[in-house]
């Protein structure tokens, strides 16, 4: 090849790499690449072409390409953009799949959401252990034409087969939400997947379980539901432009530091409502002051609404505020941990038990007395009356119902107005329902597999107990005879390491500790890897939905599904995307792009 051809080839490769770098940058930053009109004389031709023009002002090679190259050889069309994005995303996915295959054992996490076009988008995430770290890697979005169990399970199996994964033996876990179509024990997705992958243990998303614990506890106590409805109404009223300005002024007059905003209540993450409770509790004197001022103004609609809210801020409201601030604050730590990609199920079991024990401790006379003292102090600071001046009319059951067995409520709810009634009708019922729901929702932690997982956790009382570890081993067809010998030997190894820095204290550390000994402790190492890759929650899928909403907006709703999936991979797996080898990209693109107008190899 002569010098001129070499120079031309180098410039061609440099140019295509530049296009790829621009697309990687815009994709990882969730920036729209294209515009409505992309002609050369358009004032707004889109970020992609605008960045290319900017680079051409400082780079003679790019400038020469844009000015002298034929229109069909500039490689700036939407078709070429899609091919470059698909190639880049393919390289990221190839890297992930290679890691999964080396790891062998993996879990699949699936969830769905509706995009701006009302299409049902399925998010696929793989959880696996590689190079001492647990990864939860996003691979793609796919549109679901049907939402029945058969169609969804076929989608998952086709996804695994498409990427060449040995799911029949190596798929050890499947994580979904609690929808009936997903969790059905006989005809649900998890059951159909288990028919072809017998080791795929189903885990109901723990974050959803925790959310349902709080939701059910609130729904079962009428005063708790009324309390949160009042918080939402309070937020809406004070967030109005006129009232909000007064709200900021009152805070500056009454408190030091920056004014606080009331928080809108989340319907999907109830544990996060503790921030709303905390802000209302800290600023309750200012809230009462603002409502009293608005209630005395001449604007009739605002005044009536302010008086209505003010009338409900009473002793019962203050008690609920203190109670839920405390309970939701304790739940928030577990909720945050469940969002982590690296948390394992042994840690979840520990923290769920810890939360349950905390709630049981709250259900005592001393804890209630402490809570009630805090309630009275809050009422004093906020000028809320703590005594009932006017006795309420006693409720009388209808004579028609006398002598009958009534199987439903009569709408005769007794509003707590003193210490005893609040304790009996709100405090204990909320705690009892939460404790009961935790036991029910997280009951799968008592199954054989979860007991086996706990037996691999160095901080567990059953650590390396043979009969408990064998429960997990039998579920995953391990060689139990070899495992028994390995358990005997690993106890000796750990005994020598006891007290040293490298002595493991968690399930993850135990797995990392076995990395150098994986050939010696083959069965035990395999079980540890299975234990850490069992899915804990579908939070990674939920995070991918956030990216979906940033990419597929109302103005970008016409993009193809392939482009959407490619952009999502580059955005979510941005660390991998930014470290791609662009020389490898040139080879990949040259092989995939058949009708080349410029020579790349």
From TrEMBL:
Residues 506-574 form the HAT C-terminal dimerisation domain. This is Uncharacterized protein. It holds the Pfam family Dimer_Tnp_hAT. Residues 12-187 form the DUF4371 domain. GO terms for molecular function: protein dimerization activity.
